[in-house]
Every structure is written in C-alpha cells, then in structure tokens.
Specification:
Rossmann fold, 7 strands, 272 residues, globular
Length: 272
C-alpha cells in the first residue's frame, strides 16, 4: 500500500503546479472519463451518498466548490428542486465550460474567494478537490463565511487505502508507484481537513464510502488508467505508448477483469 506523506508539508506552489497540470493543461476530458467509468462500472453511487450527507431537500441553497464537469452538481439540483439553488464553482475554465454545457450554473472562482453573500448557503460540498487548495485554512474560513449558522459542510476525498489494485497494476506496467498528486490526496480529508475543521465548525460525521469499479473490457480499463493523475504524473510523454502496451498485455493475460476499490472519506461539519 502507498504510504502518503502529509499533504500539509507540500508548499502552496507545489500544490498549485500539480493542480494546474491536471486541471488546466489537460482540460476536462480525463476527469469526465473517470467520473463516467466510476458511475457506469461501479457498484455504488457516490453522488447519492454526498446528497444524503449534506442533508438537503427541496428549497435548499447549496454550493459545490471544485465542481469539475458538473456530475454531482446535477444531482444536487435534483435534490433541491426548482425552489432551491445550486451554485457550482471551479478554478478551471474548461471544467466550468463543461459543467455549463450540462445545464449547471457554474462559474470560475477561487475556493477561498467565492462570489457569495455572507451566511446565505444552507450547505457546501467540496468533493475530490480540497487537497489541491493552496491554503486550506483560508478556504475553510471562506466556507464558514458563506454558510449560515447551522449550515452543513461536506468534504470528500480518497481514503488512505483507496485504489490499491490500480497502484499494483500501475507498478507492474511501469515500475513506478503513486505520484505526487496521489500522495497529496490519499488520506488528506481524514487527516488534514479533519484537523483544521475545528476553527469554526463542529464535526458531525466521518464515514467511508466504498465503490468497487470493475472494468469488463481491457480497452475501458486502459482508458480509465490513462485518464488518472497516477498516469499523468508518473509516465513521461515519451514512455506513454510503451507503458500502455505493457499494461494491455498484463490485462489481456489476467483471468479476471481489473477491479479497483475506491474508498472515499466523507467528512461532515456544521457551521457554528
């Protein structure tokens, strides 16, 4: 298993450089590929679990920070209905454009500087994004500002033991372990976010959501693997073709399809 170092030890510049490469330079395509595969080939529904954790219903005002291409924002919109409001934000213009194309009300914004009024939101979600933020405490202070007293915050991200099968496959195909983005993300919510939440929030619940993703076809597994931060941050461009060829041979020789157990820490907080 990977043994991630504390993301808090990474500098703001390092986090921003990693995020820029994954979310600005590569565009929205890889993220959309991963979300689609997790939903189509997984045995559980993360979006439903996050809606439940937020405790929202018709008429609620919800913010989705780090919305990506808008998959979860759409589900939030279904939960709050026409009388509610979902505002989605991401710092990557390509992601915001993709979210808007799906009908999501999305804007480009920094997580620590949201164009929202004080104490106006009932709930705020940040899923699979908190570990990229240059200043977590500044973002938490901003999220406290925009939430009403008693408003619910939910932060989600990969647990420390997530993706073990994918890392084993990647090592077999490339000889490399998890890259900087993975070490940054694994266990970050349970460790760093939980540790910083006490300034302005009461922790309400921490749980682990498990989604087992099974790729029935080799091409689908390859497509998913090459869309991950793991591949992007550890395989140099000049080695990509040979890495994919080795990975394909490994998958074709397997008796069973590749399965990846994704474990997500879901941390809830209530604004004081």
């Amino acid at each position: 298993m990977p043994n991630p170092s504390s993301a808090s030890a990474s500098s703001s510049a390092e986090r921003r450089a990693i995020s820029d490469h994954l979310h600005l330079s590569r565009g929205a395509g890889p993220q959309a590929t991963r979300h689609e595969a997790n939903a189509r080939h997984g045995d559980a529904d993360l979006a439903s679990a996050l809606v439940l954790a937020l405790g929202i219903g018709p008429g609620a005002r919800v913010l989705d920070v780090g919305c990506g291409t808008g998959e979860i924002a759409l589900r939030l919109g279904e939960a709050v209905g026409p009388s509610g409001r979902v505002a989605a934000y991401d710092y990557a213009p390509a992601a915001v454009e993709a979210a808007r194309a799906r009908g999501v009300r999305a804007e480009v914004a920094d997580a620590a500087h949201l164009p929202e009024a004080d104490a106006d939101a009932d709930a705020l979600l940040c899923a699979y994004a908190a570990y990229y933020l240059p200043d977590l405490r500044a973002a938490l202070a901003e999220w406290r500002r925009v939430l009403r007293p008693g408003g619910r915050l939910v932060v989600a991200g990969p647990a420390a033991d997530s993706n073990a099968e994918l890392y084993a496959f990647h090592r077999a195909a490339t000889g490399r372990g998890p890259g900087d983005a993975d070490r940054l993300a694994l266990g970050f919510v349970a460790r760093d976010v939980a540790g910083a939440l006490g300034a302005g929030f009461d922790t309400s619940r921490t749980g682990t959501f498990v989604n087992v993703v099974v790729f029935p076809e080799v091409d689908e597994a390859i497509r998913y693997w090459t869309a991950t931060s793991l591949f992007a941050r550890t395989v140099p461009p000049e080695e990509e073709r040979s890495a994919v060829e080795r990975g394909r041979r490994i998958l074709e020789a397997r008796e069973a399809p590749l399965r990846v157990t994704k474990r997500t820490t879901v941390l809830g907080g209530v604004r004081r």
